[in-house]
Amino acid sequence: MKKKFRYVTNSNAFPFFSESGSGSIDAKDPMSALKKLVRNYDHPAGLYAAAISEDSDEGRTLARYLSARAASKEGEKEVYEIVKGKRGGKR
User: Fold this and answer.
1) Which of 2, 22, 47, 63 has its CA 20 to 30 Å from the CA of residue 56?
2) Taking a C-beta distance cutoff of 8 angstroms, is the pair 7, 37 a contact?
3) Rounded average pLDDT over 65-79
4) How far apart are alpha carbons 59 and 40 in whole angstroms?
5) CB 52 within 8 A of CB 5
6) pTM for the complete prediction?
7) Do 87 and 62 contact (CB within 8 A), yes or no?
8) CB contact at 8 A, 12 and 64
9) Average confidence score pLDDT of the chain
10) Residue-range domain boundaries for the chain
C-alpha cells in the first residue's frame, strides 16, 4: 500500500544559484519515495540534494539524498540515507 510523503529538492547551482522545489509523492516507504524522486528529477543543472518527510504539519525528515557534489563536502560519495532519530525542520 502506498503512502503520501512530502519532498524538497535543490538543484545544482545554475549558474550562480540553485532552484528549490517541493511537493508530494506516493510510495510504499521513504526510501522508495526518495529513489523515485531522484530517478525522475529533471533539471538542466541536475539534482544537488533532496529530502523526504512525513506528510504532516510536523514534517519530520525520513530520508535524504546528497549528490556526489554535495556529499564530497562531507567527505563521502553519493549518499542515500534513512534518517533515524534526527529531527528535521518543517519543510
Assistant:
1) 47
2) yes
3) 83
4) 22
5) yes
6) 0.81
7) no
8) no
9) 86
10) 3-82
pLDDT of 86 strictly over 70: no
Strand 3-11 to 20-27 pairing: antiparallel
pLDDT of residue 6: 96
Amino acid 14: pLDDT: 81
User: Which amino acid would we find at residue 42?
Assistant: D
The reported pLDDT for the residue numbered 23 is: 95
Among all chains, which residue has been given the C-alpha cell 529513489?
35
pLDDT higher than 60, residue 87: no
